[in-house]
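Figure 3 (text version): C-alpha cells given as input.
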C-alpha cells in the first residue's frame, strides 16, 4: 500500500510543506472549493508528485470523516498537513470559530484515529494566538481537552464574549496550539507525532487580504518591527515542517 500524505488547505503554505515531505508518496489534496484544489493538484502533479483530490468542509465532522475514509482507501496515512482556515478580514467571528477552532479539533481527532506508527502531523497556527493575552488555567484546559463537539458550547466562545473577528481568530489559534499539545499525547500512543507552526506574516492570498483590509496598517507595523523587516514566504515555512 502507498504511504499517503493528506494536505488539508492546499494553499501556498500547504503546498510548500507538501513539496518538502511528500516525495515518493501519494498526496491527497483536500479543500472546500474543488477549483482551488484542482489548481494546486496541477502544480504539484507537474512537479512530479502523485496527486489525488477531494473536497472537505472542516467544520463538518461527517465531511472530515469522509476525507479520512478516502485517504485510508489510498493507503497508510503517514502525514497530515492541516493548513486550512479563514482570516479576520474574510469571515465573521462565528465562521472563524467553526472553521479555525472547531475544524482543527475535528481534523486532529479524526486523523489521530488512523495515523500510522512513525507518522507525523503539522497544524498551521499563527503568531496571533501568542499575541492574545493570558487566559485562565481553566480556559486553557477547556480549549485543550474539551471533546471537539463540545468546544463551541464553551462559555468563553459564545459570540457575546468574542469581541470581533480578530479576537475570534486569536482565540482559535491559541486553541490550536493548546489542542495540538494535548493531542500529541494521544498521537504518541500510536507512535506518531503532531506539532504546530505559528508563522508571522507570510505572503499568501490570505495575507494580501489582510494587508489591504481594515487591519492593513497594523500588519505593516508588525512587518516593520520584525527582525528581517519583511514578510515571510511559504517556502520559508516548508522546511520547519520537515524537521
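Below: residues designed for each position.
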Amino acid at each position: 500500500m502507498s504511504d499517503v500524505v493528506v494536505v488539508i488547505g492546499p494553499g501556498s503554505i500547504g503546498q510548500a510543506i507538501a513539496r518538502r515531505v511528500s516525495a515518493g508518496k501519494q498526496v491527497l489534496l483536500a479543500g472546500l472549493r474543488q477549483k482551488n484544489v484542482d489548481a494546486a493538484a496541477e502544480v504539484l502533479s507537474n512537479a512530479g508528485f502523485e496527486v489525488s483530490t477531494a473536497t472537505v468542509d472542516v467544520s463538518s465532522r461527517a465531511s472530515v470523516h469522509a476525507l479520512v475514509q478516502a485517504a485510508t482507501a489510498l493507503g497508510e496515512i503517514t502525514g497530515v498537513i492541516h493548513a486550512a482556515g479563514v482570516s479576520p478580514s474574510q469571515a465573521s467571528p462565528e465562521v472563524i470559530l467553526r472553521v479555525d477552532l472547531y475544524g482543527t479539533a475535528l481534523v486532529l481527532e479524526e486523523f489521530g484515529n488512523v495515523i500510522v506508527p512513525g507518522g507525523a502531523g503539522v497544524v498551521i497556527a499563527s503568531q496571533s494566538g501568542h499575541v492574545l493575552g493570558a487566559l485562565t488555567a481553566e480556559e486553557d484546559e477547556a480549549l485543550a481537552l474539551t471533546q471537539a463537539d463540545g468546544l463551541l458550547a464553551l462559555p468563553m466562545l459564545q459570540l457575546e464574549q468574542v469581541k470581533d473577528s480578530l479576537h475570534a481568530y486569536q482565540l482559535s489559534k491559541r486553541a490550536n496550539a493548546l489542542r495540538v499539545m494535548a493531542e500529541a499525547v494521544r498521537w504518541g500512543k500510536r507512535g506518531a507525532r503532531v506539532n504546530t507552526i505559528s508563522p508571522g506574516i507570510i505572503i499568501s492570498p490570505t495575507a494580501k487580504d489582510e494587508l489591504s483590509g481594515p487591519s492593513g496598517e497594523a500588519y505593516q507595523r508588525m512587518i516593520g518591527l520584525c527582525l528581517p523587516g519583511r514578510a515571510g514566504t511559504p517556502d520559508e515555512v516548508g522546511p520547519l515542517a520537515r524537521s
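The longest strand covers residues 75-82.
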